[in-house]
Amino acid sequence: MREVVVARDVGRVGRVAREVVARVVVVVAAATAVVAARSLGSGLLNTGRSAPQATSADATTRVTTPAESHERRSWNSARLRRAGGVRITGEADIRLLLVVTNTRAVTVRGSRRRSFGQFFGDSIECPPMELNGISAIVTGGASGLGASTARLLAKRGAKVVVVDMNDPKGEAVASEIGGVYGRADVTNSDQVIAAIEAAKELGPVRALVNCAGIGWATRTIGKDGSYDSAHDLEVFQKVVSINLIGTFNCIRLAATAMAQEEPLDDGERGAILNTASVAAEDGQIGQAAYSASKGGVVGMTLPIARDLAAVGVRVNTILPGLIDTPIYGEGEASAQFKERLQAGVLFPKRLGLSDEFATLAVELLANSYMNAESIRLDGGIRMQPK
How far is CA 177 from the centre of its chain? Predict the structure, then answer.
């Protein structure tokens, strides 16, 4: 009996494998036919004659349309699809593809929607939030994580307001990316509002990236047993004020502006990306204030996302690990210090790059189904006590 069951399972696997191979062959043949038709410059592609329409009853194969995850384009200008690596544009191309493959059409609804056909199951509609032409606010945008994110947003067509307290660096980044620099303390509501109003002048406010923050390392108590040597309470309050309260201040004000914008597909109006730290979960000795502030950012991500769901604004948070930024300095001593730090990274055995943070940040802004999530970006590290 056992041998019969095994044989049956093997037979089933073989049938599935043959079916997958057959479907791949069909898609490759379809793509080849489209290329051939284009090269001939005649037939359905040029005359626009109607082609027989495949029905769901005789559909045995669906067209795959793999998307390029790191390159989003404006879907307002063309209804673009990919099949077997060949670009399919226009209704004539699609009709020809249906004739050749005898497949069911993939429907695209709305100018910003993309459809991804699947070998198995129905097609999936994926409406990204278009970044081209929007205005985005990046706090802490003069250097490090904020600067890299501001640059990538600008490359994607967003108009960026760089918010920082470092005027020379902030103005340099804004000038480089064709954006605007706004000096603002994230805990100062009037200054934050001024930056948001500047963003409104550039385009619809649909993105906020909170990268402003400070760090501080102090143990909870001193070694001499005196009250005076205990953790400075004003230092604790300052770290929490900038990292946590400042982040919330920017969220509440930017989200208010986003709520006034016209909704996109699915009622979406914007997205917010916060920066926490792995210290929120793996706080080390001396990081009481810093861990408390970043843990607060993680903790408020879900409730704020629930608050803002009513107006179509998404909220996500990244918990970066050890990222190689200018904070570690330069020179031989700095290199040795970073060498010790990266020893605990699981893989790859190095510090992270600010550009790697930026790519994840921009994806979380653009991906319309990413909401209320806190994601570690750390190479698998789990911080030790010290």
Answer: 20
Q: Which residues have CB under 8 Å from 129's CB, separation 6+? A: 206, 264, 268, 270, 271, 365, 366, 367, 368
Q: Which of 181, 227, 290, 369 is catalytic?
A: 290
- If we measure between CA atoms, which residue out of 142, 153, 159, 271 comes closest to residue 212? 142
The percent of residues above 70 in pLDDT, for the chain, comes to: 67
How far apart (Å, rounded) are the C-alpha atoms in residues 77 and 361?
25
Strands (E) in 211-275, as ranges, are: 270-275
Rounded CA-CA distance 273/206 in Å is: 11
CA distances from 296 to 176, 246, 274 (A): 33, 12, 11
Determine the length of the chain. Answer: 386
Q: Is 290 a catalytic residue?
A: yes
Is there a contact between 106 and 125 (Cβ–Cβ < 8 Å)?
no
- Containing 99, the helix (H) or strand (E) segment is helix 90-101
| Cα-only R_g, the chain | 26
Q: What's 121's DSSP letter? A: S
pTM: 0.70
Sequence-distant (6+) residues with CB within 8 A of 238 are 214, 216
Q: Helices 288-308 and 246-258 meet at what angle, rounded to 10?
A: 20
51-107 pLDDT per residue, tens: 444 443 343 334 444 444 444 444 444 333 333 443 434 444 434 343 333 433 333
DSSP 218: B
DSSP 241-258: IIIIIHHHHHHHHHHHHH
